[in-house]
Design a protein that fits this description.
Layout: E1 7-12, E2 21-26, E3 35-45, H1 47-54, E4 70-77, E5 89-92, E6 95-97, H2 103-106, E7 117-118, E8 140-144, E9 148-150, H3 157-176, E10 184-188, H4 194-203, E11 207-212, H5 218-224, E12 228-231, E13 245-250, H6 260-264, E14 267-275, E15 297-300, H7 306-319, E16 326-329, H8 332-343, E17 351-354, H9 356-359
Parallel strand pairs: 10-11, 10-13, 11-12, 13-14, 14-15, 16-17
Antiparallel strand pairs: 1-2, 3-4, 3-8, 3-17, 4-5, 5-9, 6-7
Helix pairs in contact: 3-4, 3-7
Length: 363
Amino acid sequence: MGYPDTFEGFMVQSQDDWTNFKKQEFKPKKFQERDIDIEVECCGVCGSDVHTITGGWGEAPMPLCVGHEVIGKAVKVGDNVTTVKVGDRVGVGAQIWSCLQCKPCKTDNENYCPKKIDTYGAPYPEEMGGVIAQGGYASHIRAHEYFTFKIPDNIPSVEAAPMMCAGLTTFSPLFRAGVGPGKTVAIVGVGGLGQYAILWASAMGAEVYVLSHSPDKEAAAKQLGAKEFICTKDKDWDKPYAFTFDFMLNTADATNEFDLPAYLGTLSVNGKMHHVGLPDKPLPEIKAQMFAGNGCSMGGSHIGSRPEMLQMLKLASDKKLKPMIETIPISEAGCKEAVLGVHDNKVRYRYTLTDFDKAFPNR
């Protein structure tokens, strides 16, 4: 049928065959008065995409088109849309709808709405079409305006795309922790999430230390803004840094292998270790005594809010921040290359899929 009745995307058919993408049509949600149709220009490849299609985070509805770091052009706007007009360059992240009525929604915490709908793999209620939300490895995406964001002119699309999830996921906890001048911050991991955490924390004015088990990432960490690089493979790496860090943001995907007491011991009194890396495996065993030595705590978060996204984009634009991006033309083979690169930790440090006009010439 084609747009606007159907969209086209590169879809995985089974979690047992997660590198096999097939281009096929799918039916989007019903178009409503606050919806925006976006012709996709490029899409970042998130670790969430890989966790989902491999089954690492559990079962997912199939066939599935993943991708929640979407940049494109608005080609249709609903009658009640006020923030975007046709022709605007916009982005969509990992959340595509919330009720906007509950307590979390009314306090700029819509990312914790109990009725929230993720950008892919989530069911829409019958009044919205009853379909499964499909993501951005596609010709188009249909999004509610509250979860659609105008992109500043000076941020290239391939760099803006990963900001829609990786960027917001790391900006939100740093912002909520009050990171800025006078704060000493540790970023754990230099990857798709970690590079943004380093960029943001440094741009906010904090003194940034990077903790990583990969010594070959030291140069990149310092280029992104780290003051010091700490290799956690070194024996007793934590000892010189006892009571040092006011806030620790863990972006790593192997927390199940961490010696947690070593990490927690580097926190200042009442410091916090905050997790945004979400590994497939459980955390190591935790005892209450781990938190007693310095009164530290641990927590986590889920993406961020619309006001935080807008502040993040302004920071990136004002400071002209430059992440490290690799591009891959989207195709069945390109999607496979990208998810394998993320799965095997070969990417440095984020993939963006490009050349959507070639992949979807008839849209």
